[in-house]
Amino acid sequence: MRRRSPAYATLLMLWLAVLGGGCGGKAAPPEGPRPVREGLGVAEILGGVSLAGYRRATDPRPFEFPRDHGPHPSFRTEWWYFTGNLNGPGGRAFGFQLTFFRFALAPPAAGKRGRDSRWATEQLYMAHFALTDLDQGKFYAFERLRRPVLGLAGAQAQPFRVWLDRWQLRGPEQSQDLWPLHLEARAEGVGIDLELTDLRGRVLPGDQGYSRKGPQAGNASFYYSYPRLKARGLVTTQDETFTVTGTAWFDREWGTSALGEGVVGWDWFSLQLDDDRELMLYRLRHPDGTEDPFDHGMLIAADGTTKRLEAAQLNLEVLDRWRTEDGVTYPSRWRLRIPSKKLDLLITPRLQDQELRLSVRYWEGAVTVEGTCAGEPISGQGYTELTGYAGSPGRR
Amino acid sequence: MSRLLRRSSRRYWLRHPLQAFLAVAGVAVGVAVVLAIDLANGSAAKAFQLSTDAISGRASHQIVSGPGGLPEEIFARIVLEGTRSPAAPVVEETVVLAAEASRSLRLLGIDPIAEAPFRSSFDGLGRGIDLGAFLQRPGAVLITQETAAQLGLEVGDSLQLRVRGKEKSVTVLGLLKVWDRQRRLALKDVLVADISTAQEILGGSGRLSRIDLLLPAGPSAEVDLKKIRSLLPNSAELLTSAARSGAVTGMTAAFRLNLRALSLLALLCGAFLVFNTSRFSVVQRWMLLGRLRALGATGREVFRQVLGEAAVFGLVGSLLGSALGILLATGLVRLVTRTINDLYFAVAVHEISIAPGTVLAAIALGVTASVAAAWFPAREAARASPRRTLSRAHLEASARRRAPRLAAAGGGLFLLGALALVPEGSLALSFFGVLTVLLGSAALTPWVTLTTMGILLEPCRRLFGTLGSMAVRGVSASLSRTGVAIAALALAVAVTVGVGVMIDSFRRSVVDWLGYTLSADVFLSSVRLSTSRHAAPFGPQLREDLSKLPGVEGLNTLRRVQLPTDQGPLRLSALDLAPRAESAYSLSAPSRARAWSLWHGADAVFVSEPFAFRHRLAVSDLLELPTQLGDKPFEVAGIFKDYGSDQGRVMIRRSLYDRLWADEGYDAFSLYLRPGANLDRTLRAARRRAAEVPALVVRSNRELRDYSLEIFDRTFLITGVLRLLAGGVAFLGVLGALAAMQLERQRELGVLRATGLTPSQVWRLMVAQTGLMGLVAGLLSLPLGLILAWIMVEIINRRSFGWTLDLTVSPLILAQAMALALGAAILAGLFPAAKMARTSPSEALRGE
Fold first, then answer.
1. pTM value?
2. Which CATH class is domain A6-112+119-386?
3. In chain A, what are the domain boundaries?
4. Quick one: angle between helices B701-744 and B759-790, nearest 10?
5. Under a CB-based contact definition with an 8 Å cutoff, are residues A96 and A106 in contact?
6. B130: which chain A residues are within 8 Å (Cβ-Cβ)?
7. What is the ipTM of this complex?
8. B116 contacts A23? CB cut-off 8 A
9. Under an 8 A CB cutoff, do A150 and B75 touch?
10. Cβ-defined contact of A25 to B85 (cutoff 8 Å)
11. Structural Rg of chain A based on CA atoms
């Protein structure tokens, strides 16, 4: 989801909020197929919505903290995106995802003109929370939607807080810093309550945090990441609560842009290697299976320095596929080779079914990494996101 | 043998098509009425259910509030502290078109973001609708294509509404395309808006009408419920959706049961026709059956044959009846719906939904009723020994012999019926009692007929000579046939009398009540005073202005609200009464003075008669009401007569209401003029002022009285229609039966003609005979009708609705009943008499 173009995300939001009967707040049980939601194609969605009046990300610019941790309502879309792998006592292992999206339905200036209801707003918040219980082979996913009124949802930089109902990200009260950051989400007896601290520092993908998504200027976003966080806290599944520790990844992005022509989805990898390096890469896919030239990746060294990876440097091969019971096929195991870095990695889902069957269907799950670096064995873990396989976004 | 039986039966009915037709028609009309009422009731209930689903959605619980709605902060607290289960805020109110104040629409404000799990009606509706604009654009609404077509609107058009005195404009942002017919109906005349838009249009920013919750079943919900309750303000109530809609459907339960009972009365009349026809056919075939028995047919075979015939009549009649019933239902559903709209709640039913189960049940009922009706005639046919059956005289003799025994059994049934009326609890049992009383009196008929004829014999001989006594003797001589016909006629007339007297008493009680209740001179209220769907109230400014109108001496104000309670909504009327109004109330209290002093000074209320009945309250009991300051006990200072609502209502003085509920609205006003003031002048001034306010109508005392009676008459229209239908079935049946009976006497009359009777004497003899039967039926029907009326007024009405009515019997109705019975009987005699008078004796003697 995070790598979805903001414009696309907004439009999809409109569609799902109006059409979205029956899915809000429901767990997606891994057993049993669900009907595939008939979505609109990207082209239909993109038609007719104007980007006029929003700010655009047109050039690299210096970030300002803590202000940029907070919302940017004059841009159309933004998100706070957390994923991580956790270990509990007795070999229990979990994966988690907690994401807050903000969407503007109109440029903020247009919003409140002459309106006196407190429900009148141009902003919407959506949150996704997923937990993979690897020991039990179970995957839970939940969705919440809310408009930021009456204190029901919102985001603020100082003290840092992003929340929707009772799900929240909460920074320290008296400090400008994000860390230690508190994550809380709970639904239907499944929950996380984690404290995150930063191990690596902030990195800026793309051109100093300016990330281009298409050929036109402005089809871009501002982007920063914290690729290695230490996590500790509690995980609750239906039966019990576990004390856990682990590693997490935080992505932060905002902008006002559209996907390039004919992009049907993307595959995205955030991998934490055990030699203290991190690897991020994604590719945008065309309907014919070819890749978009704006694909790229980034290799982050232990000292926080980053190396951009161009498409030509990457070789990603799908080794296996997984079919859902209702017939959607996702790639499920990959061989990633980066000859220039002497990396040869096998990426394997820790559980096959980590598909979020929410208003939007996508696969976002914990993965393990094994392979070699310059002939030496190397391993790691991370998260992978696969969109556009289940009819939306875009049809195949 | 049974083949022979079947063939003889077929030939018999082919030669008597009129009788077969009557039996079939009787069942058909009976079944049609039962089915039509059932379908109409069912359709109204289903339409209500659908609109509940469309509007209330799949919510498991709802948080509702009394006047003024819920503060919206409650919603945030519930989401942030109360429950993690889905919750959705709703703002809902009736609004009217600025151009046409009588055209009302429902404005439904929802939060589409929180909405998804709740309202199935909005699934898949929004294709092509711009959610951003829906949330953003002031005044943006969605309507169904059908509603748009009706209002002549297209996307982008705007519509002027009148809301609380202000003109508001809404714009059609998009059309909801609903393929499902039922949902389309449920969304008819609904303007769907974002909750922000709805709040702005209604001028109620900061308030919600209700909050829908979707809690899972089980113990975790209990924890949530407890927490939610602790967060609610005092005036709000947490209800399960089932309880809420159950309370609403429960409101109409008595009404629907009454209709059903009346429809069963029509079927009873139909069954009586089958009985009559069956019996008559047995009597007519007496010789034939005797011969068949002599030829070896067993009693069992004959029994089966007669029952089989009835079953065929029943089946054919029921099939025809169900087709007829479906047609009839389309007409009746409008009457049922209008009554429900007038009395209970707004529900829009535009077509009937035909439940196959209901249709099958009606058919089964029709067949069963007609087989049951033929049981006795069939047994009679089977029992008779071959030798004895050959004698017609024997049959009549045994009918006469059995009359007293039958009468004793009838008396027993009568008592049983009366006994069934005693227990207060069950309305269904009371109706059973009514039916039993009716059947019991039917069984009394032959004996009463014999007795009456015995009394009449001498006077008739003296007055009219031999011919007179012949007429009298003729009636008792063919008792097996006359008895049934008289009973059927008496029943039909009694039902007419009973229902007629009941409606008449009711109407008179209402007229009296209106007479002393409507003491003011000018009344102002919202257009739809009669419906409980709350429209926007009027503001205090209007009250000020009205009190300053020329000629106005005093003013009553009324605010009607519904308080949420566990047992459904409670109707509360807050009144500010002018001194002259007080004397107008018919209060039952030990001391009127004390009642009024409590009203003015204490935490006291008046409750209406039906309310006291429903809640088992007496004067000086305590009644607890949910106020905004918490539940508070109020003393019942008096009980007042009120035919305005069968749910009952509670009256509270305005100053007390103002203290306990934050609400400054008014729903109606009434003005008292100074003695000598010019009514027309005040009316004109009031109308001028009212023109500035939407949906406010001004009526003079006379006009309001007429309007109220119009609603009353509308309410009883369906009862009247049923009365006519039931009466009509029986009347036609009796007409046919008497005519057939007289035709069957061709031979006998031929003999009379041959012995010298002139055609005009034959004519008079026959008309005199049927006239005598009509007389007996009429005499029987009067006491029976009055008993029926008494039961309906004193027992059924009180148990159904809690109303006390004064039983008033107008001589006119009794005279009408007598005329109806005599008229029907004489009319029935005319046709065969005319025919007989025309035929020559030789032809008549040749027989059939």
1. 0.61
2. mainly beta
3. 6-112+119-386
4. 140
5. no
6. 14, 48
7. 0.80
8. yes
9. yes
10. yes
11. 20
